[in-house]
Amino acid sequence: MRLKSLKLAGFKSFVDPIQIDFPGIMCGIVGPNGCGKSNIIDAIKWVKGELSPKSLRSESLQDVIFNGSDTRKPVSHCSVELFFDNSENFLGGEYLEFDEVSVKREMGRDGQSNYFINNASARRRDVQDLFLGTGLGGNSYAIIEQGIISSLVGAKPEELRSYVEEAAGISKYKERKRETESRIRRTSENISRLKDLEDEVKRSIRRLNAEANLTSKYKKLRDKEKEYQKFILSDDMNELMKLMNQSEKENKSIDKDLEKIDGDRLALVAKRDVNKTQLMESLKELEEEQRGFFESGAKISLIEEKERTVASRIEELSKEEQKNIVNLEDLSKELDSAKSDLSKIDEKVMQTILNDSKKIIQKMESSISKKDSDLIEKSLKEFWKKGYQYGVGESGEAVETINTLRGQFASRNEQIIKDIESMKKDLAKEKGELSGLVETRKSQELKVIELRSNQDKANEEMRTIEAEITKLESEKERIMQQRNEKEVNKRTIEIDIKEKQERLDSYSEVKDIEGERESIVQDLEKLQKRIMNLGPINFAAPETLEAEKERKETLSGQIEELETSLNKLDEAIRKIDMESNKSFHNCLNSVNKYLEEMFPKLFGGGFCKLDLLDKSEDSGLILMARLPGKKNTKLSQLSGGEKALTALALVFSLFSINPAPFCLLDEVDAPLDDDNTARFISLVNEMSEKVQFIFVTHNKISMEKSSHLLGVTMRDLGVSKVVSVDVEQAMELAQS
User: Fold this and answer.
1) Cβ burial, residue 370 (10 Å; 0-12/13-18/19+)
2) Which pLDDT belongs to residue 406?
3) Which of 380, 469, 573, 652 is the most exposed place for a label (fewest CB within 10 A)?
4) Beta-bridge partner residues of 113
5) Distance CA 496, CA 217 (A)
């Protein structure tokens, strides 16, 4: 199994999606400092499930997502995917049939990671389990970064032991052991809980036994109580049936009373309806008579008012007639006097006469119409004007006018006389009509009085009938209320009978007893007191008791099964410990064997060995080394190059026991001189027959021994690019 390729997108400086292929068994990653070479190592660690930001050279996990540069914007997520060649079936189990296995991890800014194995969703634990025992597990010795070499030499005993356990392939067994121990703890806890439940069930069974015995005693007393109650119920039923019969008789009597009341009421209602019809007819007749009476009164009033108007008019006309006669005489006298003095009139006399004429006219205005007064005034003015202007001879026309007026006064008086006579005749006629109407009104008034008296009698009779009907309805309502009460009482008795009958039916299997009711009641009271003294009864106790017994059997079976399982798990732990300890010691011996061979190859002699710290089963390991030509020296006193070669000797020894799919070396050759670098590269070349090496280096010797070089550049600040070079092809091109 080897690493075929690596896909990155948005991871640290590798913002653009890129695929890095590893075609050879020795692939060197080269480039200037700070271009992103170590980010490739971080990507491989991250996809394996690394959660420590410090291990990834970051402050937080989100820092592995490309955070932008001067020319590029930040991205929202990153992904890394590893592709492994599994054609030799290095990964067994469910992946045995796959020639290629891929492992992928994705993460967004929220810090949530998603894992995939062969594009199928997986858990972080699934990814870690995939690499357990392969050298790429949690305590991986296959990824050696800058600064790890020296720390590997000075590692704690527990850490050194973990490397050997990983090489021995028992790390996965230890993981299974931890899972099994966890299951043992859970099983022990379950057993404890089940035993507590079992104890509780036992206590419950004891309690339920007592309650079941009490329930049995209670049922016996209840059965005896039912015998007494059956007797009392039968007796009550007989009494209720008597009451029922009596109630039915009473209801029949009440029904007869109701029928009689209904008959009397119907007769009164019929009589009331007849009287109401007659009353309505009488009311109509009274209204007609009253209407005629009021109409006669109106006519009489109208005639009397007309008589008064005519009499007043006659009086006015008579007064007007007398005034006209007097005025006519005065006008004749004045006219005669005016004619005799007309020739003697001068302007002054004429004015005097004119004034006098105005006085005459004013006297006449009270007795003549406004039209006649204006005409007289106009004529006199004209008469005097002409008489003054033209002489006496010109006033003849005025005299003629006055004569005409005298004729009109006379004609007016004649007309007044005729009007008065006509009015007197009409007045006599109206008086005759009035006399007839007065007689008629007297007759109508008597009729109205009679009709009103009849109506009062009819109303009084109606009130009497209504009072009798109201009395009957009140009586009916009282009897109906009584009937309803009886019906309710009857219904109550029926319900009581039904209820008691149902109870009696339920007591059909209860035997009958004989005796006096009083004695039976006393015995029942004593029995009920005994039942009350029993206290609360759990009627479900017998059934619950059986259920609890079954539950106890189930719990006992479960406890037995769990204890059996626990024993099996303990046995499995012992076997795992035994096999793991055996495998660990075998591996330790093998590692020491390889150290004896590799250490002299790197140093040209010397001695190196791993030894147990103490005799305990979980004892840690210490690394002891003696360089050629030197006494035993503490590892902390070794130079950087010596520490690096010592650590590499240990790592390669581990690889000899359990070769990892690949080995990542991050500038481990930096502290080595050319001679040691040559020894290191020679050993790597030897080990490459078993392990694929991918190393970051600045050393030319290491570059020359590489079969494939990956050049990492950073043309754009903060963004890494990769250029792949086949060294053998490049050398051939260079030689040609």
Assistant:
1) exposed
2) 65
3) 573
4) 107
5) 31
Backbone φ and ψ of 75, nearest 5°: -110, 165
pLDDT in tens, 311-343: 777 777 777 767 767 766 766 676 666 566 555
Contacts within 8 Å (CB) and 24+ apart, 597-603? 598/649, 598/652, 598/653, 598/656, 598/683, 599/625, 599/646, 599/649, 600/628, 601/679, 601/682, 601/683, 602/645, 602/648, 602/649, 602/676, 602/679, 602/680, 602/683, 603/627, 603/628, 603/642, 603/645
Residue 398, both tokens: 């005025």
Do 413 and 324 touch, CB atoms closer than 8 A?
yes
Higher pLDDT, 100 or 453: 100
- The Cα–Cα gap between 661 and 135 comes to 8
- The Cα 379–Cα 354 span in angstroms is 11
Name the pLDDT band for 392 (thresholds 50, 70, 90). very low
How many angstroms separate the CA atoms of 315 and 165, rounded? 162
What type of residue is 664? Answer: L
Q: How far apart are CA 334 and CA 373, in angstroms?
A: 16
The first and second tokens of residue 273, run together, are 């309806």
Rounded Cα distance between 466 and 472, Å, is 10
pLDDT in tens, 396-432: 555 566 667 666 666 766 777 777 777 767 667 766 6
pLDDT band for 19, please (50, 70, 90 cuts). very high
Q: What CA–CA distances, in Å, run from 216 to 19, 228, 269?
A: 84, 19, 73
- How would residue 81 be classed by pLDDT, with cut points 50, 70 and 90? very high
* 204/540 Cα distance (integer angstroms): 13
- Relative to beta strand 77-85, strand 143-144 is unpaired
Distance CA 1, CA 691 (A): 9
Amino acid at 86: N
Question: What's residue 393's pLDDT?
Answer: 47
Average pLDDT over residues 65-81: 92
Q: What is the 3-state secondary structure (H, E, C) of 684-725?
A: HHHHCCCCEEEEECCCHHHHHHCCEEEEEECCCCCCCEEEEE
Q: What is the pLDDT of residue 388?
A: 46
Q: Is the pLDDT of residue 520 over 60?
A: yes
Q: Which amino acid is at 340?
A: S
pTM, entire model:
0.48
Which CA distances in Å does 288 have to 284, 291, 450? 6, 5, 13
- Element containing residue 404 per DSSP (H, E): helix 396-506
Measure CA 605 to chain center: 83
329-343, 385-399, 472-486: least confident range: 385-399
Cβ contact 619:588 at 8 Å: no
Helix (H) or strand (E) holding 54: none
Collapsed DSSP state (helix, strand, coil) of residue 575: helix
Closest by CA to 650, choosing from 606, 608, 681, is 608
